[in-house]
Amino acid sequence: MTTTKLDLTREYKTYYTAKTTPEVVEFDEAQFLSIDGRGAPGSKEFTAKIEALYPVAYGVKSLCKKQDNDFGVPKLEGLWWVESDKPALEVPREEWRWKLLIRMPKFVTSEIVEKVKAEIIKKKDIELVKEIMFERITEGKCVQIMHVGPYSTEPESLSKMRKLMEKENLIENGLHHEIYLSDPRRVPGEKMKTILRQPVKERT
Description:
- Strands 1, 2, 3, 4, 5, 6, 7, 8 and 9 form a nine-stranded antiparallel sheet that branches.
- 27% of the residues are buried.
- It contains four helices and nine strands; from the N terminus they run H-E-E-H-E-E-H-E-E-H-E-E-E.
- The protein has two domains: 1-28 and 141-204, Alpha-Beta Barrel (Multidrug-efflux Transporter 1 Regulator Bmrr, Chain A); 29-137, Regulatory factor, effector binding domain (Multidrug-efflux Transporter 1 Regulator Bmrr, Chain A), CATH 3.20.80.
- Helices cover 27% and strands 29% of the residues.
- By secondary structure, it is α+β, with helices and mostly antiparallel strands.
- The chain has helices at 8-11, 44-66, 110-124, 154-167; strands spanning 23-27, 30-38, 76-81, 97-104, 133-137, 140-148, 170-172, 176-180, 193-202.
């Protein structure tokens, strides 16, 4: 008997889709594997922490599959911020802060995650696995857009989002969020798709 594999991108279709024009959307609580860091995207720390996150995600998938709860590991996501009053793009990339995320299905528990982490630390000796957290995040109301193109042209899409926020009388209410739908190793820069999302609230 084969079990059905849960496809999170289908189960939460509105979470993993966006229009190429900015829109206001709303999201409920979701749970994630996460790991924090600091520095430019693609830096040694950034790469090492991605390499720690995926074995845990696939370890959780493997353990859940044995319990007849198989699922496909979804796309990498990132929350971004700076510890400065300056706009993020005026701050050196080496000072950027980030939290890398991989969404987990509702049936995943902290006990499952801790069990997998312990096994990976024991077998593969990936020390960074200790830093991986299992957390719930509720973003609520957001402005989002599908950015098509290289990461370097994101400011153009962010500008469109800001215009909509001004029009709708909205201000930031959380961290800048990106969902990486394309693999930069396989997809040409001009065709890459990234969801840009910004939690917002009404300006009072």
